[in-house]
Design a protein that fits this description.
By secondary structure, the chain is α/β, with parallel strands linked by helices. 41% of the residues lie in helices and 12% in strands. The protein has one domain: TIM Barrel (Alpha-Beta Barrel), CATH 3.20.20. An 8-stranded parallel beta barrel has the order 1-2-3-4-5-6-7-8, surrounded by 4 helices.
Length: 299
């Protein structure tokens, strides 16, 4: 089970049409693009998938479409979290999870719970979830950090198998790596910190950049996991300048602009996000050309 989530997991975007409806043709092209690019598993309805602006019916349609078009039968992780613990539990009890290998559950946002509250929240979810749970710590969005001691306590739950650690705090990640059991997965949630985190025990990443650069990113991760850090560093440095542009106008605005340039899908997002500005688009095109990234992408 745990090996399913080692390597390069891609946090899939949700393509939209100009009418802001789900673009299933674009999603099919994206699935094939990232799969052919060598990603190890697919993450559906995370932050990058704009889960916050899709209703429950749309989320399930996207999930089922990914399952049906997952032609290499890669493991699938489904984003199911929030700040209403009882609401999440109801979904876990009522929803079918055929074809889904784990859920990715973001730490409660807006409520700003204490560490005791975060622990109780995840224990309640893990107790009823029919499939394994991966914690998701992203304090930049939730305004509440899952501290290392809380993660380690939660790692003892038999149905909690790992954490996507996106705090950006390498010392916190090191504390988890040092004290966790071998069967608990430390997964990078920050693309550019993936190689450093692998050096001290991370098993891979759930990536935004892998939407647009699946082969480059997979090569980076695989080389790092194999101890080929010089080669991994070369791939990392190729992505160094494009990465901050992915977040300049909020995720997934930047990566959707990359995908439009590649002809995978439109750059449309749903309000309150807006599509990439002319200035951001110009910057992205300049870096793509400067780093010769387009030449290395196989379409």
């Amino acid at each position: 089970m745990l090996q399913k989530f080692e390597g390069n997991g891609v946090a899939l975007i949700t393509p939209f049409t100009k009418k802001k409806e789900i673009d299933f043709e674009g999603l099919a092209r994206l699935i094939r693009f990232v799969t052919d690019g060598g990603v190890d598993y697919l993450v559906v309805m995370g932050t990058t998938g704009e889960a916050a602006t899709l209703n429950e019916e749309e989320k399930l349609k996207v999930l089922n479409f990914v399952i049906e078009n997952n032609y290499k039968k890669l493991p699938i992780v489904y984003g199911l979290g929030g700040n209403n613990t009882l609401g999440i539990i109801d979904k876990l009890k009522s929803q079918r999870f055929d074809g889904v290998n784990a859920i990715l559950s973001v730490s409660p946002y807006y409520n700003k719970p204490s560490q005791r509250g975060i622990i109780a929240h995840y224990e309640a979810i893990a107790d009823v979830s029919p499939i394994p749970v991966i914690l998701y710590n992203v304090p930049g969005r939730t305004s509440s950090n899952i501290c290392a001691s809380s993660t380690l306590l939660l790692s003892e739950h038999k149905n909690i198998i790992g954490i996507k650690e996106a705090s950006g705090d390498l010392i916190q990640a090191m504390e988890i790596a040092k004290n966790k059991n071998d069967d608990f997965l430390l997964i990078s949630g920050d693309d550019l910190l993936t190689v450093p985190m692998i050096t001290f025990g991370a098993c891979g990443v759930i990536s935004v950049l892998a939407n647009g650069f699946p082969e480059i990113f997979t090569q980076m991760v695989n080389n790092a996991l194999n101890g080929n850090y010089d080669q991994a560093k070369n791939y990392l440095f190729k992505l160094l300048q494009i990465n901050p542009l992915m977040y300049e106008e909020s995720n997934p605005v930047g990566i959707k602009q990359v995908l439009e340039i590649l002809g995978i899908c439109e750059n449309d997002v749903r309000l309150p996000l807006v599509s990439a500005s002319e200035d951001l688009t110009k910057k992205i095109k300049m870096i793509l050309q400067k780093e010769n990234l387009l030449e290395e992408i196989k379409l």
